[in-house]
Structures are given as C-alpha cells and as structure tokens.
Amino acid sequence: MKKIKLGKSSNIKTLSKKDFELYSYKAPFIVENCFKHIVRSLKKGKFDVDLFVKFISDFYLAGDFLSAIKLARMVNNEKGGQLTEKERSIVLSSLTFLYSLARDFDLSSFYLEQTTSLKEIDREVAYRWLAVARIILDYSKGNYLSAYLNGKRFIDNVLTFDTSHKVFSFQPKHHLIGILIRVTNRSAMLLAESEKHGSEKRKMYFDSIKDLLEKVKSVNSKAIDFFYFCELSVLYSKTHSFPNAQKALASAYNIIMGRKRAFHRYSYVYYQAKAFFYSQKGEFSEAYKQIKLAYRASFNVSDVYDELDVIDQFLTIAREFSRSDPILRKQTSEFYMKGNSLLKQFINFLEEKDWYTGKNHSAKVAALSYLVANKLVTLFPYMKSYIDVQSIYLAGYVHDIGKVKIPWLLINKINKLEEYEIDYLINHVLFGKEILEELNFKSIARVIYQHHESPDGKGYPEGIRNVSVEANIISLADSFEAMTTSNRKYKKPKSLDTAKREIISLSGTKFYPEVIEAFKSVKTQELKSFLDSLK
User: Which of 36, 229, 361, 508 is deepest in the core (most CB within 10 A)?
Assistant: First the structure.
C-alpha cells in the first residue's frame, strides 16, 4: 500500500482515484489514532491544545476537512466534559470555523452559539476563529454591513500577526487574508450597489475598498501582493475601469508566473479575477473559459472554502448572463441546452467533480424521463394537462445541479456517511432549486426540488405526499439509472430486469401507479438499446 502523508506537502484532491480510495479507507483509523493521543494527554491531567490544533490543521491542509471535523466532534462529544471552558472554547470554535469554511452554515451557527454561551473563551485562538466564522456567516446571510465592518477590522488586526500564529492553522497568513479581502470587498460592493449611482455613500464604499487594499499592499509580501492585484482588478472591473483592471491582472500574473509552486496553488484566484473582468465587459464566452480554468485549478489547493467560492463565482456569471439579453430569457429552455451553454457546463463540472455517479448520468436520467413521460401521455392522454414532456427532459438533465455546491470530498466519500454529512448532502435539492430560480427556471426548479419526494410521504426534503408527476418521473429515472450503473460507490449494478422489477414493486408507495404503468410499457430490450445509445 502506498504511504500517503498528511500535511502541507499532500492534498488528497490531487490523488489518483486509486490512491484516494486507499487514503479513504485509512482515514477513520488515522482519526481514531489521533483521538487516542489526545485522550492520553488528558489522562496526564492536561488537554494538549497544540496537539489538537496540529491534528485538525494537518487534516484540513491535506484537503480532508471531514476528518478534521470528525476529530473535533469526537473530542467535544466524548471528552468535552473533562475540558475547562477555555479549552472547550478552542474545540467548539474550531468546529464553528471549519463548518463556515465548508459552507454548512446551520452547523457553523450552532457551534458559534455553543461557544459564545461559555463563560470563558480563549482570546488568543478561539476568539479569532469565531471572528472569521462570523464574517463568513454574515456574508452568507446577506448581513453585508456587518461582514464589511468586521472584515476590515479583522484584517487590520491580523496583518501584524506572525505567520506562525495559530489563527493561521488552517490557511497560511496570505491565504486567510486573501479570503477575508474577497469577502470584505464583495460585501462593500454589494452595499455600494444598493446606493444610488453618483451618491456619496456609493463612492465611499468603493473608496474604502481601495483604502483597504492599499493597507494590505503595505505588508512586504509577494504572496499578499498577488491577492492585492487580483482584488484590485475586481474593483476596477466592477467600476468599469477596464484598462486599469487589465494592468492589475498583468501585475498579478507577473508575480505568480515566476513562482511555479505558487502558480500551481493559487492560479485559480487569478482566473477568477479574469473571469469577473470579462463578465463585467459582457464577454461571457471568455468569462466562462476563465472560470472553467479557475474551477480546475482550485483542486490544486486543499482549502474547501476556495473550491466552493469558484462555484459561487460561476453562479454569479451565469446569473448575469441569463439576465443580459431579454431575448435569451424568452428562449431559455432551448438556449441552455445548446452547445457550451453555462447551464450545460454546470453539469459537465458536476460530472468532473463526482467520480462515482458516472459519466452521462444526467443525460441518461433526462432521456429516460423523456421516454417514460411520452409513454405516460400515450397511455393516459389526460396527463397532457399535468406534464410538459420537453420540460421533463430539461429537469431530468439538471436534477442534480445543486451538487455543484456540495464539497468534492463529501460527494466522493466512500466510507459510511455521518448523520450530519447526510443532512448536508440532502441540501443539494435546495441548492438546485436556488440555482435554477436565479437563472429564471422557476417551474423546473420546483420539479427538481421534489425529485427525492415520494407519494407515501417518506421522501425528502419536506416529506410531502402531493409530489408533482414530473418530479416522480425523474425520481424513477434517477433510481433506475442508479441501480444499473457500474460506477456507484456502495452497490454492484443490477441487471435491467432486476432493477425494473424492483421499481415496479414500489408502485403506490414511492411512485404513482400511472408512472409505473408507463415504465412497465417500456420493454427491457428497448431500455437496453436506449441506454447503450447514451454510453
């Protein structure tokens, strides 16, 4: 077995599939061993904070934020009662920080409340981890003024810290400052946008961004200079000062190109800034190319926050693109299925990201949904009043689009999922609904939001019984494809006949009887020929 080390020199997201699986099988044992070391320190009468921070940061820096969270939860749940309040604040604040970076804002808020309820909080580490988590949480919840003010304050504070300070356990100093600059500046830009054009307040927000960037630039660090120029280009792009934005991008490029390792790790930030530049110019084709480069480059860095931040940027570009031309809004279904459309590229990204669902899963679900829908309206003509066959095809194609906002590691986890991981994974239907609503696909958003619901009320996310027929068709197609694919993590593929019998047995519970009748009318050989044509 190949030895895989944890730490700054390794990033599990860059491993081959085989090595990733080897690491995944070892990870639970590594976590358990780390926990035993911490327990030994407690038996000696003292919680070894340095050891705890080292373990969780090693996992995080290796790209395994799930193991970092699992270890911190084990310490909190099993040994929290043996810790002083100050020691426990470090454990709880690490969970608050980790969940905020992974965009699980419900659990981040939960642990934030747990930490702040303590009478004594560690001021050196816990207090500052909480501060970063609060900034990220405020931004995610739309509290832009709070994120902006606290972001400015915190950046001022940490600029003077030594690079060895524990607040930089999960990211190097320049990296954490880069994240905070992005969040703070985006908050300021959104605040500026809410003010009238030409108003003093609008100008004040834009000027404050430049002031903050100049303060960051005063630190003598090439790494921080790189983030400075990338953010400066974003500012100039936002204010449509495109020649200055190009100069800033050129300066960022010159810094990073001379450093091969830095380019490998942080080129995604440069590509993001470049994508934003082209989107503000209205050159969406070029913006897409750059964000695609950013997405792929983001896997070279272990930080889960950055991976998801690139997807957020892609969503912003897609949203602006969908609103850029009123004619396109009238032809959305046709437009988004053409060529290299942004919606289609979301699915391409998802198939790159998800190693185990399988190539062409979305296309197979879409095509099978379309086939069953056509059979349904043939058998039951009155169903034409309830379903739109073309919309079912598109909804089937994008049914899993929300998974682009789920961390890569969680999508590809091959070990048993923890309960809180399942809860977060379930959010993909909500994320998908939000994405599609933002892109003006409100009717399709409703359908994909329900594609894990069932008529017996045992589905999710709401456990409703009056599931739309369209969603039930997509649910059937998704289930059948999952049963028969060879790529799934947990189960071997079933034969078409076996899968078909299992699906039919769920008539009246998971699937409407009419939908099952339509599916039964598809002969097994027809299914085989049909699915073979999509390989």
Answer: 229
Cis peptide before 461 (omega within 30 of 0): yes
Query: Mean pLDDT across the chain, nearest whole number?
Result: 88
pLDDT, tens digit (0-9, with 9 covering 90-100), for 59-71: 999 999 999 999 9
- 0.85 exceeded by pTM: yes
CB-based burial label for 199 (10 Å; 0-12, 13-18, 19+): exposed
Specify whether the CB–CB gap between 169 and 126 falls below 8 A: no
The CA-based angle 484-386-341, given to 5 degrees, is: 60
Say if CB 447 and CB 468 are below 8 A apart.
Answer: yes
- What are 1-19's pLDDT values in tens digits? 344 454 444 688 888 888 8
Calculate helix-pair angle for 242-257, 222-238, nearest 10 degrees. 160
Angle of CA points 298, 262, 315, to nearest 5°: 25
440: left (phi over 0), alpha (psi -120 to 50) or beta: left
Residue 15 has, within 13 A of its CA and on its CB side, a CA count of: 25
Categorise residue 199: left if φ over 0, alpha if ψ from -120 to 50, beta otherwise.
Answer: beta
Q: Which residue in 380, 365, 378 sits closest to 471, CA to CA?
A: 365
